[in-house]
Amino acid sequence: MNTVIAFIIIFGALVFFHELGHLVMAKRAGILCREFAIGFGPKILSFKWKETVYTIRLLPIGGFVRMAGEDPEMIDVKPGYHVGLLFNPKGEVEKIILNKKDKYPNAKLIEVEEADLEHGMYISGYEDGERESIKRFQVSDTSYYVVDGEEIQIAPYNRQFAAKTLGQRTLAIIAGPFMNFLLAFVVLFLLGLIQGVPANDPVFGEIVPNSPAEQAGFKEGDVIKEIEGTPMKSWSDVVGTIRANPEKELEFTIERAGKKLALTVTPDQVKTENQTIGQIGVYSPVEKSFLGSLKYGLVGTYTWTKEILTALGKLVTGQFSINMLSGPVGIYDMTGKVVETGFTNLLSWTALLSINLGIMNLLPIPALDGGRLLFFAIEAVRGKPVDRQKEGIVHFIGFALLMLLMLVVTWNDIQRFLFQN
Questions:
Q1: Catalytic residue among 19, 132, 151, 287
Q2: How confident is the model at residue 167 (pLDDT cuts 50, 70, 90)?
Q3: Most confident stretch, 130-134, 334-338, 360-364
Q4: Same-domain pairing of 114 and 190
Q5: What CATH number is associated with residue 247?
Q6: What's the number of domains the chain is made of?
Q7: Is 8 within the bounds of a domain?
Q8: Which of 251, 266, 287 is the last residue before a domain boundary?
Q9: Same domain membership, residue 269 and residue 366
């Protein structure tokens, strides 16, 4: 249950802040945002605040911000339609009722002759029984379609995504991944404030139980003055010396409570991916400071970003197998293991996932934010946008391929999960 709760909270937070970035920058550009959704599929919970409907949906596999002009289904009022009109106090059309008009006895019923609900914002037609004269009605900039009793706000062209400048559209799209990097930085910054950040002083931090360091008599807070007669000026010097001497007895000169002591220890031999190193079982010293935590957040975000990009490069060159990728099942399994190690490790895991989500969304793949940005780059070079229908086809194909990749990765995750458990 702890794993389920942690997974839902972490994944929900990553998606929430990503979509929040899109929402904030879209609204700043004046784009009508119809819906802010966490998840896909049927709605579990929804409420409306100002112009936007905020929803939580059943399938926790992402989220979206539905912007005007980007709607998958557009309502088109055509000549010959019979609609009902309700007016605001200014005499402008406030609501256009498309069906179940009998529930609105005060509505003016007309047969549409012409409608421009993007640029001119008007609708004209014949009132029932008065076909000899066409009447034109001005439509309010804040008006609504009413379909099955549900109100859908009409978006004048200047409130639509496509009407905004290239810079405004770019910011609205790139803000999502940016928020993931910002979230990672904030989480790591808070982690630094909570647990402290590694210091570079030649002082022992926490001693691992039953380690060579504990058996040799070292204690937390011991100041390392020399190793084998060589002065130690930093923690980096200490670590470098220990790693370079696996299974070799080393004499330490330390200072404890104002007194100098000489202790000997033999580092264990530990094999890593590329080399064999020595370890004695001590952690680096930590310090708690605002500036140190700030640096820790920045450096950690940069370092993990660099490592993920390196791994992606290996995937492209074939040095990294697709079987090593993980989807929701693999992330869930790993989250469960991290939960067992403690809250601070869970925060680090959250930051890592957030950076990963930000990078993945910036890849120039159709259907992802990076794919949208690629089309914006093409628009900047051409001086005009790519045909929307053609772009839509490319994004649809990209989405289908992503879903196929997700199925493959998820199947691999399930096999690993069943085999390991």
A1: 19
A2: very high
A3: 360-364
A4: no
A5: 2.30.42.10
A6: 3
A7: yes
A8: 287
A9: no
For residue 133, name the pLDDT band (cuts at 50, 70, 90): confident
Q: How far apart are CA 42 and CA 261, in angstroms?
A: 69
* Same domain? 311 vs 410: yes
Active site residue 287: no
| Residue 226, C-beta contacts closer than 8 angstroms, at least 6 positions apart | 232, 252, 253
pLDDT band at 400 (very low <50, low <70, confident <90, very high): confident
Q: Is 56 a member of any domain? A: no
Co-location of 282 and 292 in the same domain: no
Look at residue 232 in the predicted model and tell me its pLDDT: 95
Whether residue 3 is contained in a domain is answered as yes
User: Where in the sequence is the domain holding 239, given as residue range(s)?
Assistant: 198-287
CA distance 390 to 21: 27
Report yes or no on whether pTM surpasses 0.90: no
> Within this chain, do residues 262 and 359 fall inside the same structural domain, yes or no?
no
Q: Do both 329 and 411 map to the same domain? A: yes
Model confidence at 54, pLDDT cuts 50, 70, 90, reads very high
Query: Which of 182, 164, 180, 181 has its CA nearest to residue 172?
Result: 164
Same domain, 256 and 383: no
- Asked if residue 323 is part of any domain, the answer here is yes
Same domain, residue pair 299 and 368: yes
Give the domain-ending residue among 287, 310, 330.
287
SS (H, E, C) the chain: CHHHHHHHHHHHHHHHHHHHHHHHHHHHCCCCEEEEEEEEEEEEEEEEECCEEEEEEEEEEEEEEEECCCCCCCCCCCCCCEEEEEECCCCCEEEEECCCHHHCCCCEEEEEEEEECCCCCEEEEEECCEEEEEEEEEEEEEEEEEECCEEEECCCHHHCHHHCCHHHHHHHHHHHHHHHHHHHHHHHHHHHHHHCEECCCCECCCECCCCHHHHHCCCCCCEEEEECCEECCCHHHHHHHHHCCCCCCEEEEEEECCEEEEEEECCEEEECCCCEEEECCECCCEECCHHHHHHHHHHHHHHHHHHHHHHHHHHHHCCCCHHHCCCHHHHHHHHHHHHCCCHHHHHHHHHHHHHHHHHHHHCCCCCCHHHHHHHHHHHHHHCCCCCHHHHHHHHHHHHHHHHHHHHHHHHHHHHHHHHHC
